[in-house]
Design brief:
three-stranded antiparallel sheet; 5 helices; about 160 residues
Amino acid sequence: MTSMQQIYKINMSRISDIKKRALIRTLKIFGITIVIMITARYFSVNHDVLIGDLWLLPFIIAILSFLVYRAIGKLAKIYETLEIRLTDVGVERKAETWGYKIVKWPDIQIKQNRNGTIEVYDKNISAFNRKMYGTGWIQIEPEIENVDLLMTQIHQRTLL
């Protein structure tokens, strides 16, 4: 049997797309959180106190913006080291600080989302455990080089 190993990396000319998607996802979470906190505070205190608290909001937003900016910069550095490998055993993901993941060929299910991300997951692990603990689940960004070839090879290998 011949040894198969294909390595796919992120197309670095498209890293800004990954940053933009991460920023939008983060802003949605922060926006919802801030609305919930203000609403909860509105119903729990005197309105004069609430107006005083709102003066803090620009400072909180500034601090969160700085933290998000730094986190997205670190995320881009991690994506520079990302490798998706197709081996004889299965689909592997390696990246600096993210560690190593593998989904073996006999257990693979694959799903392509509307936003272009590809989910390779182990059909023997529950959806809850996959999402909660990250085991048996590899998410591949659409900015990966040769994404069509990658999908074709995974589909061909899972049909064997």
